[in-house]
Design goal:
By secondary structure, the protein is of the alpha/beta class. The chain contains ten helices and eight strands.
């Protein structure tokens, strides 16, 4: 398959390298030239990559921040050809997908997806297509989706060694991500920020390190994602605060029996995730 990747950050560059190793022909664009030149030198991006190559490919993968994906399509949509498939790897969908669906030309299908994988570090130099191995892969359908889009995205998922594939709409995706990804990053950040003890660094164990690993965050990207998904995220924060308040009350009144039941329920629920 001929693929054009827009954006060579962590995910875009990792896709480019992994898809090249699986026999796909990969062209790319990046706003700064260094990652593109480096990808050509390393051999996983075609040496004749140029923006005009968009018109010759089967699949275009948008791997910029959501607002920049929209700007890119608005500027370059005249290069798209009928029958092409557009997808993206953005972390929020509702707002971005609506905006893209408004401006995409007729004859272009668009189905989004979300690779549930990443690193604390970002950028081209952090690329590693092994981060996708056994990770979850979410396909997000919209008003310009065709059923055949899913077949193409499933090939991408298979070639990059993703695990479980789930198909949802944009609203469901953003609710899921608000809970499973965005809220967890907020918890990690606020746990770090709630530290009031000067000896904390000398007293951390695995539990603290595991819980706060994702506090080593890309503040530019995550600020945008939090704000773009504000409604769903605030709802999940409120849900979490209610649970935290409930546990606090159980501790204050020393209700050991109910506290044990609550902890056991959580343990069993979490264990059930491991047998999907």
């Amino acid at each position: 398959m001929k693929i054009f990747i827009v954006g060579l950050g962590l995910i875009g560059a990792s896709y480019a390298e992994g898809l090249h190793h699986n026999g796909h022909t990969v062209y790319a664009y990046n706003r700064s030239e260094h990652p593109l030149i480096e990808g050509m030198k390393q051999g996983f991006i075609q040496k004749d990559s140029s923006i005009e190559k968009i018109g010759s490919v089967d699949l275009i993968i948008l791997a910029l921040y959501p607002k920049h994906n929209i700007e890119f399509v608005q500027t370059h949509k005249h290069l798209f050809k009928q029958g092409q498939i557009i997808t993206d790897v953005s972390g929020t969908k509702v707002w971005m997908m609506k905006e893209l669906e408004k401006i995409l030309p007729q004859g272009i299908s668009y189905t989004s997806h979300h690779p549930m994988a990443g690193k604390e570090s970002s950028g081209f130099s952090s690329k590693d297509y092994n981060i996708f191995r056994n990770a979850n892969f979410i396909i997000v359908e919209g008003s310009k989706s065709l059923k055949t889009d899913q077949d193409v995205l499933r090939v991408i998922a298979k070639d990059l060694k993703f695990g479980k594939i789930t198909v949802v709409n944009a609203k469901t995706h953003d609710e899921l991500i608000a809970f499973t990804s965005q809220l967890t990053h907020i918890l990690a950040v606020t746990l770090v920020q709630s530290d009031r003890l000067k000896e904390t660094k000398q007293a951390t164990g695995d539990s603290y390190r595991d819980l706060t690993r994702i506090a080593k965050i890309n503040e530019v990207m995550w600020s945008e994602l939090f704000l773009e998904n504000k409604e769903a995220l605030v709802e999940k924060i409120n849900d979490f605060m209610q649970e935290l308040k409930y546990v606090k009350e159980l501790i204050l009144v020393e209700d050991k029996e109910q506290l044990m039941r609550y902890l056991k329920e959580a343990k069993e629920k979490r264990k059930s995730f491991d047998i999907l």
